[in-house]
Design goal:
Number of strands: 20
Family: Belongs to the Rab GDI family.
GO molecular function: Rab GDP-dissociation inhibitor activity
Bound molecules: 2-acetamido-2-deoxy-beta-D-glucopyranose
Protein name: Rab GDP dissociation inhibitor
Mean pLDDT: 93
CATH superfamily of one domain: FAD/NAD(P)-binding domain
CATH architecture of one domain: 3-Layer(bba) Sandwich
Strand content: 15-25%
Shape: globular
Largest sheet: 7 strands, mixed
Oligomer: single chain
Radius of gyration: 23 Å
InterPro entries: FAD/NAD-bd_sf (IPR036188), GDP_dissociation_inhibitor (IPR018203), RabGDI (IPR000806)
CATH class of one domain: Alpha Beta
Number of helices: 12
Organism: Nadsonia fulvescens var. elongata DSM 6958
Helix content: 25-40%
Strand order of the largest sheet: 8-7-16-17-18-15-19
């Protein structure tokens, strides 16, 4: 470890591992350290033993839960959009060779006390129980508008200027009801609250297009998910980094980050060893003095079930979104469901992870309508995470800190953070060109 590097990365969360992979490919000499003995940091996937150690140290998993190694429980529940930025990065870096993805079988939304599939095609809109007869026709016209929208053909804009007109005005033009706005804004555009309504419509329209294009890719839902859990993602980028000479050290204490007289970072100390580098990247847990709370706290409840979610045609995986308005809340509640068919739970078991931004002191009561949708559960592990963000952008001390993983249901904000950090470090936008596939000899594992 007593050597000089271009970059030292602290923590093996997904953000850090994407950055070390990308920087290694660009020829930087990277040292990557984690104080924990497993990959993933805050975004790890845990087996039963580790899950109990973390949430219920005095208890033992019940025997009926099956083999420890069959479990990979995500600490941060998120799905990948099939056409989203993380998927593009995985494909362009050829990291997909280390991973196997499966599509998530359904995307559901809660309305008036029950759940239904999110309609994404004109046919589905016509059949959807979410809307009455006339509303179905209005929804069909809205989907046609989105489907035909071409930036450079003004006659497809139907008189709307999406850089000026707000989303409320767009909904008004199509005469959509408030319950329909709820599922378009929250279950398709995936906004977590209603602030988007008064903003220019462009971003919302682009998000709906991303959703629909992602659905179109595999059919059942816009989401895909890696076999063996999300913890596979940082590991896959770590392997990419290693191929390009990156050095990885797990279970390695980080005792001190060292600075020069000008206050610029110069290295990292672990025991008696010092590794030097002029750039250090890390997650907020390594820099408690350099981060602040965003004020948002995320509640997550991991429920283990031995049956599929009721009223979902026994799907092996799905997402359920409860738009905030439906429960008179300010933030949506998400439920991510995966199961043995993704190699994250033992046979006949399902994992349902509920998450939301907390609004009261009793988040488990706020989430009661979500728990009700699941039916009986065998086990539940609950936790609250504070969200942190860096105080400074790193230009002064060359320490670049990532943000905590937020409450959104997908990875788009994580890749935004990766791009932002990359830009702060290099002064250039991150462009990941399609990498030539490696031959097996180059890939030493
Ligand atoms: C623009 O859109 C209209 C309406 O969809 C279509 O009839 C027309 O052919 C399009 N024009 C071009 C140049 O693509």
């Amino acid at each position: 470890m007593d050597e000089e590097y271009d970059v030292i990365v602290l923590g093996t969360g997904l953000t850090e591992c994407i950055l070390s992979g990308v920087l290694s490919v660009e020829g930087k000499k990277v040292l990557h350290i984690d104080r924990q003995d497993h990959y993933g940091g805050e975004s790890a996937s845990l087996n039963l033993t580790k899950l109990y150690e973390k949430f219920r140290p005095s208890a033992q998993p019940e025997e009926s839960l099956g083999r420890n190694r069959d479990w990979n429980v995500d600490l941060i529940p998120k799905f990948l959009m099939a056409n989203g930025e993380l998927t593009n990065i995985l494909i362009n870096t050829d990291v997909t060779r280390y991973l196997e993805f499966k599509q998530i079988s359904g995307s559901y939304v809660y309305r008036d006390g029950r759940i239904s599939k999110v309609p994404t095609t004109e046919m589905e809109a016509i059949r959807s129980p979410l809307m009455g007869l006339f509303e179905k026709r209005r929804m069909k016209r809205f989907l046609e508008y989105i489907g035909n929208f071409k930036e450079d053909n003004i006659s497809t804009h139907q008189g709307l200027n999406i850089d000026k007109n707000t989303m409320t005005e767009v909904y008004y033009k199509f005469g959509l009801e408030s319950g329909t706005k709820d599922f378009i804004g929250h279950a398709m555009a995936l906004w977590t609250n209603d602030n988007y309504l008064t903003q220019p419509a462009r971003e919302t329209i682009e998000r709906i297009i991303l959703y629909l294009q992602s659905v179109a890719k595999y059919g059942k839902s816009p989401y895909i998910y890696p076999l063996y859990g999300l913890g596979e993602l940082p590991q896959a980028f770590a392997r990419l980094s290693a191929i390009y000479g990156g050095t990885y050290m797990l279970d390695k204490p980080v005792d001190e980050v060292i600075y020069d007289e000008e206050g610029k970072v110069s290295g990292v100390k672990s025991g008696e060893e010092i590794a030097k580098a002029k750039i250090v990247i890390g997650d907020p847990t390594y820099f408690p003095q350099k981060v602040r709370k965003t004020g948002e706290r995320v509640f997550r409840a991991m429920c283990i079930l031995d049956h599929p979610i009721p009223n979902t045609d026994n799907l092996d995986s799905l997402q359920i979104i409860i738009p905030q308005n439906q429960l008179k809340r300010k933030n949506d509640i998400y439920i991510a469901v995966v199961s043995a068919s993704h190699n994250v739970a033992s046979k006949n078991h399902y994992l349902a992870i509920i998450s939301t931004i907390i609004e009261t002191d009793t988040p488990h009561i706020e989430c009661e309508p979500a728990f009700k949708l699941l039916g009986a559960y065998k086990e539940v592990f609950m936790g609250i995470s504070e969200l942190y963000e860096p105080i400074e952008d790193g230009t002064k001390d060359h320490v670049y800190i990532s943000k905590s993983y937020d409450a959104t249901s997908h990875f788009e904000t994580t890749t935004d953070d990766v791009k932002d950090i990359y830009f702060r470090i290099t002064g250039k936008p991150l462009v990941i060109e399609k990498r030539k596939a490696l031959t097996n000899e180059e890939d030493e594992e």
